[in-house]
Write a structure and sequence with these properties.
- The protein contains eight helices and nine strands.
- The chain is α+β, with helices and mostly antiparallel strands.
- It folds into two domains: 96 residues, Roll (Nuclear Transport Factor 2, Chain: A); 62 residues, no CATH class.
- The strands form two sheets. Strands 1, 5, 6, 7, 8 and 9 form a six-stranded antiparallel β-sheet that branches. Strands 2-4-3 form a three-stranded antiparallel β-sheet.
- The radius of gyration is 31 Å and the shape is elongated.
- The protein starts with 5 loop residues before the first helix and ends with a strand.
C-alpha cells in the first residue's frame, strides 16, 4: 500500500471540505432566490396573457336575449331580431300595442318549430318558457398580448381577443375572424403583478378594457 503523507492527506481533506461547502452554499443561494422570487414578479407577456385569460370578467359568456310576445317596432327592426328571423328561428305577426309600449306598430313574436328545436337544446326548460330567453352564445379568447408599457409598479397591457361561438346561435351573431383590441392596467403588489380592479388607481380595469374595446385589423 502506498504511503500518503499526513500533510497531503490534510490538504486533500481541506479541498474535499471546501468543495462540499461550496455545493451547500450554492444550493442555499439557489433556494433563497427561488423562494424570494415569484413567477409573478416579472410582468412578461406570458404572465399578462395568463392573468387576463383567467380573470372572471374575461370568462363571462356573452348571451343573446330572445324576446317573445308583443314587442315594439323598435325591437322588431333591431339587428338582433333580423338575425333570428333570417335563420328561421322566430316569426312575427302584427299586434295591437299595449298601453305604454311604443312606438307603434307592435309585433307578436313567437318561436318557429325550428326555433323551438334549436333553443331547447341550449337552455333549461324553465328558461325556455320565459318571455326573454337568455341564450349562451360566445366566449372570449385571448389572441395575443401586443405590448406592455411599464411605469414603476404600474403598467398598461395591450392585447387582442375575439369571440368564439359556443353554438349555432352564437355563430349567427359572432364571427371568429373579428378581432378586438383592449388596454388593461396592471399593478405590482408584494406577491407579484395583478390586474387593477379599481380604475381610480391606475389604468383601466379588465371590465372597462373589454367594454371600451376597439376593432383590430
Amino acid at each position: 500500500m502506498p504511503h500518503v503523507s499526513p500533510h497531503l492527506r490534510d490538504v486533500g481533506d481541506e479541498r474535499l471540505l471546501s468543495s462540499q461547502t461550496m455545493k451547500e452554499l450554492l444550493a442555499f443561494v439557489t433556494l433563497t432566490l427561488l423562494t424570494a422570487c415569484s413567477p409573478r414578479d416579472y410582468l412578461s407577456r406570458r404572465l399578462a396573457t395568463d392573468l387576463i385569460a383567467s380573470s372572471a370578467e374575461f370568462n363571462q359568456q356573452q348571451q343573446v336575449i330572445l324576446k317573445t310576445g308583443v314587442v315594439s317596432n323598435k325591437e322588431y327592426v333591431s339587428p338582433e331580431f333580423v338575425v333570428l328571423q333570417h335563420h328561421g328561428w322566430v316569426t312575427a305577426n302584427s299586434a295591437k300595442c299595449p298601453p305604454g309600449l311604443e312606438p307603434a306598430p307592435c309585433w307578436d313574436i313567437s318561436l318557429t318549430p325550428a326555433g323551438v328545436d334549436t333553443i331547447r337544446l341550449l337552455v333549461h326548460a324553465e328558461e325556455a318558457t320565459k318571455p326573454a330567453i337568455a341564450i349562451p352564445a360566445a366566449r372570449r379568447e385571448v389572441i395575443a398580448v401586443t405590448g406592455i408599457s411599464k411605469q414603476g409598479t404600474t403598467a398598461d397591457v395591450e392585447f387582442t381577443w375575439r369571440w368564439i361561438p359556443v353554438n349555432e346561435v352564437g355563430a349567427a351573431f359572432y364571427a371568429e375572424d373579428q378581432h378586438y383590441r383592449s388596454l388593461v392596467g396592471f399593478r405590482q403588489f408584494d406577491d407579484g403583478w395583478r390586474i387593477v380592479q379599481n380604475a381610480a388607481h391606475s389604468g383601466q380595469s379588465i371590465e372597462e378594457a373589454l367594454k371600451n374595446a376597439e376593432s383590430a385589423p
